[in-house]
Amino acid sequence: MKPTSIVSLIIAVLLIILGLVTCMIAQNMATANGEFLFSETREDGLVNTVDLTESEISKIELIVSDAEINIIGRSEKACIEFVNFRENYYNLSAANRVLSFSEIPDITSMLKFWENGFTFKGMRYLLNFKKDQEQPADVRKIINLYLTSEKEIKIFDISADNCTLNIETMSSAADYNITVKTAEITTTGLKTSSNFSINAKETDTPAQSVTMKMDTSMTANLNVNA
């Protein structure tokens, strides 16, 4: 190897070591302050909480394989909880007033190669990779979305192979666009002057099975293709 290549390699290794040490120090400092860089352990499993108080969001996209999704309005605090999702195996982003969550079943969620470049989810997740591997893959995955009255979400896009969806005390003009293979859907106190649609797009195939219970709920349009 050329001397310049050796020097570059040494610098790269030193930067990686420095980054890992920095992550470990930050993790210890966060733990001492009662904050969590990674999921915290609760009775219902590993929970990663994202505060949405200061976020300006008009659309929420959730893409999962098999999960329970709870959308609860009139909450005291706006936040979203991911229960038993392995941190290295999903993408979460917020841009252009869109909160987007997508579950990916393999390592490509941490290291991703796109047509136009390379993105790295974050070095701190390497420290948690072994813990991710130890977590059982068949545990029940849950997403709890708590919204305050001030959060006016215009569109909910939910896509899943199998989904249990519970919606409580949501009163707004939001569109609910749901694409599933099988689903159990329960709404309580849902009021929307817009659409509640299940596999209703022209490109959607009919759902295999949908069980619905709507209690004290009102929608302007209800479309189910199953």
Give the ordered list of helices and strands: HEEEEEEEEHHEEEEEEE
Q: Structural class of the secondary structure composition?
A: alpha/beta
Low-confidence stretches: 113-120
Query: Percent of residues in helical segments?
Result: 10-25%
Question: What's the pLDDT, averaged over the residues?
Answer: 82
The counted number of beta strands is 15
Largest sheet: 13 strands, mixed
Cα-to-Cα separation, first versus last residue = 62 Å
Strand content: over 45%
Shape: elongated
Radius of gyration: 21 Å
The total of helices stands at 3
Task: Describe it.
The protein is built from three helices and 15 strands. By secondary structure, it is an alpha/beta fold. The strands form two sheets. Strands 1, 2, 3, 4, 5, 6, 9, 10, 11, 12, 13, 14 and 15 form a 13-stranded mixed beta sheet that branches. Strands 7-8 form a two-stranded antiparallel ribbon. β1 and β2 form a beta hairpin. The protein is elongated.
Summarize the structure.
The chain has 226 residues and is an alpha/beta fold. Helices cover 18% and strands 47% of the residues.
